[in-house]
Structures are given as C-alpha cells and as structure tokens.
Amino acid sequence: MKTFNIAFFASHGGSNMQAILDAIKDGRLKSNPAVLITNNSKSGACEKAAAFGLLVYHVSSVTHPDDNERAKFIIEILEKFKIDLIVLAGYMKKLPSEVIARMNGRVLNIHPALLPKFGGEGMYGINVHKAVIEAGNKISGATVHLVESEYDRGRILLQKEVVVLADDSPETLAERVLKAEHKLYPNVIELLEKEEIIT
Fold first, then answer.
1. What is the 3-state secondary structure (H, E, C) of the chain?
2. pTM for the full model?
C-alpha cells in the first residue's frame, strides 16, 4: 500500500477536491492532503480546503508576474510539503513545464469527456459538453489522465462512461458527468495506493 502527500490545484468550486477529501475523511483513502495551490483566492476551493484544515497558497500572475518566479515558488511549496502527487481539480491555468518535469509522471488531471475525444486547448467546462452534444455522441463521461506539457495528451489511467440522453442540454450533461467525476477521481487514487495502477 502506497500513500501520497497530495497537493491540490484548483481555480473554482473544488468539488472534485472535496470528493477526494471526503474519501480520505471516511478512511477509504490513506493519503495525506497537504496543501491547496490556487490562482483564485476567492474560489470555493479555498473555503473547502480551509474547512478541512489545509493550508492554501494563492499563486498567480498577481502574486508572481514573472513566469519563472511563479514556477519556482510552486516548486518550493511542493518541496516544503514533500509532495509526491499533484491532483488538478478544475485548475484553469497551464501547469509550468518545470513543475511537470519535477513531478515526473505524478500529476493527475480529470477531464469531462472520454479522451482522446473532445480534448485539447479550449476544451474545458461547458465547451466540452456542447461539443459532445453537437457531435451527436450517445456516450460521454470522464477521464483521469497523467499530465504532460500538451493539453489532455497524457496517458489515460481510468475512464467512466455517462450516457448522453436525447433531451440533454450541455448543462444537464455537465451535471451528470460531474457526479461521475466525483466517483472516478477518488477511485483512481485508491487504485494508485493499492498499486493496481502504476503511473
């Protein structure tokens, strides 16, 4: 059984982070949630992290206008907390390449579609669900994958399918896919702990 010191990165509501924190609180997951890094100090994720007792760092172009300094500060935080797994949970900024290189295959992201379909730059949030419906797809879902320097191109670890209903709007589909994400993300971390998935 492996355990991880986890750094969450989130920009908005942080509901996927909360699903993982709930699984840790319930004892299903054994890993240690160490810190939240956010580019939005007013995000719901900050409130959720604080309620759980996590330290929160606001790191953005406001706090660090220089890209190199921002990347350096993020790495300092990762080293301070001995982070060995980054979990992107609705983080709306591209992770610096230096951070991805340092973590060496230990950065996870969740995407609200079945990659490799409907991925890449601009494919986030409601845009994804609009594209799925416009394409006439009958199945969508969620994907947890490793993060590389190119958007949504890292190795797929696990997916969960969601049926697209005939009367779905992008909003109704988004709601059901998000519920699937909340089950999928903790499941992937559990499989990583059990070494049934190897990054």
1. CCCCEEEEEECCCCHHHHHHHHHHHCCCCCCEEEEEEECCCCCHHHHHHHHHCCEEEECCCCCCCCHHHHHHHHHHHHHHCCCCEEEECCCCCCCCHHHHHHHCCCEEEEECCCCCCCCCCCCCCHHHHHHHHHCCCCEEEEEEEECCCCCCCCCEEEEEEEECCCCCCHHHHHHHHHHHHHHHHHHHHHHHHCCCCCC
2. 0.96
Q: Are 185 and 144 in contact (CB under 8 A)?
A: yes
Residue pointed to by tokens 């070494």: 195
What are the tens digits of pLDDT across the range 148-177? 988 888 999 999 999 999 999 999 999 999
Structure tokens at 128: 């994804």
The residues assigned a catalytic role are 111
